[in-house]
Amino acid sequence: MKSLSISRKQLMLVALLAPTSLFLLVFFVGPMLIMLTYSFLEPGLYGGVEWHFYHWNYGRVLGWADGFYEEFDTVYLEILLRSVGLAVATVLCTLCICYPVAFWVSTLSAKKKALCIFLMTLPFFASMVVRLYAWVLILRNSGFANQFLEATGLITEPLNLMFSGTAVIIGMVYIFIPFMFLPIYSSVEKLDKNLLQASEDLGATPFTTFRKVIFPLTLPGIVAGCILVFIPSLGNFVVPNILGGAKVLMIGNMIEQQFLYARNWPFGATLSMIIIFMMMIILSIYLYKSAKKQAAL
Amino acid sequence: MKKQTPLGRLLSIYSVLFFIFLYAPVILIVIYSFNSNPINIMIWDGFTLDWYRSVFGLETSLADSSSYIDSTDQLLNALLNSLIVAGSATIIATFLGTSTAVALARYRFKLHSFYRLLLFVPMVMPDIVLGIALLIFFVGAGFTLGNSTIIIGHCTFLTSYVFIVVSARLAGMNPLTESASADLGANEWQTFRRVTLPLILPGVIGGALLSFIISMDDLVITYFISGVDSTTLPVFILGMIRRGIKPEINAIATLMLLFSVVIASAGIYFKSKNTSTP
């Protein structure tokens, strides 16, 4: 009877796990491995691939040419660095914007708090294209911002706000704000307000209290928020596509070009792998640090 | 931390400005979707419903030259595709995510951490990377790009979202109810069907709603793996925006926002029910 119940249990487990395992192995792990393989293959002359090992894809990103047709060119490295720069700027802006607000929300009454959290989560549900489109309306030459500035007499000619790094940062900040706000807010909520009182009573200035008490205690939320904003910003291709134009290319746009226009799939796969590598480095540092912290407690 | 201090007052003003920053751009779209000025859509000219009528292919008072939608059929086709994709992907992902969550919460086995990782990774994977990987795979394996490839693509990451939501529900559940059911002679399947499933149902519905919303909104992955005539609504709108700003986009965007608010309210209603019944 016992062996029967065990086998039935195992049967149930297999039945529960088999569909997902099969699905994700075929349609997630498989494609990822194929992409990894592609990044080491030679691009064919007319699109497609040549099936032999080829390491120049990775060299090309850094500027080394294949030695036959190309010269040393740092254009890809520049775009990569620009992507990192824009992503870092986005992270810093969202952090500076969200941090004070998180504190303000945590001082409100329970009902107002719930309303604020609702208002923060609602954008999650609204279409991203629509939210970015709103900024097209605001930033373009005949847009809301220029008309407002002209009406107030600050400018006489419309400013070129679209198609700049600033426009891309504004767009990314706008769509990723909830990713930063919610983790910070949850760590601010957990902060014991008595500690602030204690710190003040012990003679600390507000700045010292912030540096020694508030900041370290809310750091987990800050780090989580930064990672949650940085990773999608880095590989973003929609925002630069809509607000950046051809001038502010990011690594995501380059990947799109390799696949849809240049037909150099191996190089596009290589660029995707670089995003994965950067993501893996960030996540493993994060997991390592948090594991160490857990062990220290 | 009290509001009376000047710093506190500054903080309040700043926070109110923050929420204005969050909502003003979207509200702007809604307001200007009723603007009758066909040339510069940011200069208010009077109230009109013509853009909405134009979106639905109704007769408008507009001159033919100022009617911009290429064809209402295309828009409705994109909407239909979006609904088919989101509906199918939600059903599949809910099934996959729920079964995995139940397996991981109720059974101890060796590959536990492997499965956690397997379901975590698709969620954090930047969408462009996943889109590219799927494109290479589908083309290499000889799939025709279309609704079916989009559905498969969406399921790869939606499963993780359902898994997370259902797991949270399972974690808050008393496992003894299931032992009781087993003690009373129910087999595994009966226990699942009669005890576990009804208890996790709010989580399952929540996960399904979340999947539906994410699938309806997905742009990047769909962009790469959609075929010629399987454009979804976000991809269609991206195309419209890139071709030039037209007043009809305001109307479409407003309708989409309305739809999102309705679904979000439904989600929050279910969530409140979810927490009120322990």
UniProtKB/TrEMBL annotation, chain A:
<keyword id="KW-0813">Transport</keyword>
<keyword id="KW-0472">Membrane</keyword>
<protein>
    <submittedName>
        <fullName>Spermidine/putrescine transport system permease protein</fullName>
    </submittedName>
</protein>
<keyword id="KW-1003">Cell membrane</keyword>
<feature type="transmembrane region" description="Helical">
    <location>
        <begin position="213"/>
        <end position="231"/>
    </location>
</feature>
<feature type="domain" description="ABC transmembrane type-1">
    <location>
        <begin position="80"/>
        <end position="286"/>
    </location>
</feature>
<feature type="transmembrane region" description="Helical">
    <location>
        <begin position="79"/>
        <end position="102"/>
    </location>
</feature>
<dbReference type="GO" id="GO:0055085">
    <property type="term" value="P:transmembrane transport"/>
</dbReference>
<feature type="transmembrane region" description="Helical">
    <location>
        <begin position="114"/>
        <end position="139"/>
    </location>
</feature>
<keyword id="KW-0812">Transmembrane</keyword>
<dbReference type="GO" id="GO:0005886">
    <property type="term" value="C:plasma membrane"/>
</dbReference>
<dbReference type="Pfam" id="PF00528">
    <property type="entry name" value="BPD_transp_1"/>
</dbReference>
<feature type="transmembrane region" description="Helical">
    <location>
        <begin position="12"/>
        <end position="41"/>
    </location>
</feature>
<dbReference type="InterPro" id="IPR000515">
    <property type="entry name" value="MetI-like"/>
</dbReference>
<feature type="transmembrane region" description="Helical">
    <location>
        <begin position="159"/>
        <end position="185"/>
    </location>
</feature>
<dbReference type="InterPro" id="IPR035906">
    <property type="entry name" value="MetI-like_sf"/>
</dbReference>
<comment type="similarity">
    <text>Belongs to the binding-protein-dependent transport system permease family. CysTW subfamily.</text>
</comment>
<feature type="transmembrane region" description="Helical">
    <location>
        <begin position="267"/>
        <end position="288"/>
    </location>
</feature>
<keyword id="KW-1133">Transmembrane helix</keyword>
From TrEMBL, chain B:
<keyword id="KW-0813">Transport</keyword>
<dbReference type="InterPro" id="IPR035906">
    <property type="entry name" value="MetI-like_sf"/>
</dbReference>
<feature type="transmembrane region" description="Helical">
    <location>
        <begin position="117"/>
        <end position="143"/>
    </location>
</feature>
<keyword id="KW-0812">Transmembrane</keyword>
<feature type="transmembrane region" description="Helical">
    <location>
        <begin position="12"/>
        <end position="34"/>
    </location>
</feature>
<feature type="transmembrane region" description="Helical">
    <location>
        <begin position="251"/>
        <end position="270"/>
    </location>
</feature>
<feature type="transmembrane region" description="Helical">
    <location>
        <begin position="192"/>
        <end position="214"/>
    </location>
</feature>
<dbReference type="InterPro" id="IPR000515">
    <property type="entry name" value="MetI-like"/>
</dbReference>
<keyword id="KW-1003">Cell membrane</keyword>
<feature type="transmembrane region" description="Helical">
    <location>
        <begin position="220"/>
        <end position="239"/>
    </location>
</feature>
<dbReference type="GO" id="GO:0055085">
    <property type="term" value="P:transmembrane transport"/>
</dbReference>
<comment type="similarity">
    <text>Belongs to the binding-protein-dependent transport system permease family. CysTW subfamily.</text>
</comment>
<feature type="domain" description="ABC transmembrane type-1">
    <location>
        <begin position="79"/>
        <end position="267"/>
    </location>
</feature>
<feature type="transmembrane region" description="Helical">
    <location>
        <begin position="83"/>
        <end position="105"/>
    </location>
</feature>
<dbReference type="Pfam" id="PF00528">
    <property type="entry name" value="BPD_transp_1"/>
</dbReference>
<protein>
    <submittedName>
        <fullName>Spermidine/putrescine transport system permease protein</fullName>
    </submittedName>
</protein>
<dbReference type="GO" id="GO:0005886">
    <property type="term" value="C:plasma membrane"/>
</dbReference>
<feature type="transmembrane region" description="Helical">
    <location>
        <begin position="149"/>
        <end position="171"/>
    </location>
</feature>
<dbReference type="InterPro" id="IPR051789">
    <property type="entry name" value="Bact_Polyamine_Transport"/>
</dbReference>
<keyword id="KW-0472">Membrane</keyword>
<keyword id="KW-1133">Transmembrane helix</keyword>
